[in-house]
């Protein structure tokens, strides 16, 4: 396993120790540029998946940590069906898939923050949020993990805490 994968696993377990046990731990993932190489709607082969992030997600699943997906893919029937099918093929199990409803949120930044808040209000601690943009983490998102350049590098961001 790679250094990035190992670092994610280790950081997750370090973070977990800081949280109370009244709330269930969970981790939030963006999709595009985070789990999938940017610009890929549904991967056709392994090269279109960001393997360190994807394998980290599978690891979390294997130890019973709940996963939430928050994507700025626009909410529509077709888009939701297509994205659910893509996640199913990748064997990604999630508690909820948040997609950007542009009738409710003009800004994708506000949409993502409100989604994290809703997760928190449902009794969860978000331990980590992973994404390739700064709006993928922040309030209610725990430790931010910025995915650079389709997984070539990651950066931990906690200076907003
Ligand atoms: Mg993204």
SSE topology string = HEHEHEHEEE
* Shape, principal axes of CA atoms: globular
- Placed side by side, the strands forming the largest sheet appear as 3-2-1-4-5-6
Mean pLDDT: 96
- The number of domains is 1
SS element count, helices: 4
SSE class: alpha/beta
CATH topology annotation = Rossmann fold
What are the key terms here?
single chain, 161 residues, alpha/beta, Rossmann fold, six-stranded mixed sheet, 4 helices, 33% helix, globular, binds magnesium ion
Explain what you see.
The chain is an alpha/beta fold. It has one domain (3-14, 26-157): HAD superfamily/HAD-like (Rossmann fold). Helix content is 33%, strand content 24%. It has 4 helices and 6 strands, in the order αβαβαβαβββ. Helix 3 (77-89) links the parallel strand 2 (66-74) and strand 3 (96-100). Helix 1 packs across helix 2. The protein is globular.
Task: Present the secondary structure layout.
Elements: H1 3-16, E1 24-29, H2 51-62, E2 66-74, H3 77-89, E3 96-100, H4 108-121, E4 124-131, E5 143-148, E6 153-157
Parallel strand pairs: 1-2, 1-4, 2-3, 4-5
Antiparallel strand pairs: 5-6
This protein binds magnesium ion.
Magnesium ion binds at residues 30, 32-34, 131-133.
Structure summary:
The chain has 161 residues and is α/β, with parallel strands linked by helices.
């Amino acid at each position: 396993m790679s250094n990035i994968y190992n670092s994610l696993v280790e950081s997750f377990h370090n973070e977990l120790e800081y949280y109370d046990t009244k709330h269930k731990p969970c981790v939030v993932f963006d999709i595009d540029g985070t789990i999938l190489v940017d610009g890929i709607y549904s991967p056709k082969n392994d090269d279109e998946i960001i393997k360190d992030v994807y394998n980290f997600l599978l690891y979390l699943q294997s130890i019973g940590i709940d996963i939430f997906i928050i994507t700025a893919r626009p909410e529509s029937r077709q888009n939701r069906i297509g994205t659910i099918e893509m996640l199913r093929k990748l064997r990604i199990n999630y508690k909820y898939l948040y997609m950007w409803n542009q009738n409710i949120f003009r800004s994708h930044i506000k949409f993502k923050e409100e989604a994290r808040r809703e997760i928190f209000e449902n009794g969860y601690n978000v331990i980590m949020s992973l994404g390739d943009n700064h709006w993928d983490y922040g309030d209610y998102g725990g430790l931010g993990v910025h995915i650079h350049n389709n997984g070539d590098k990651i950066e931990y961001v906690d200076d907003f805490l």
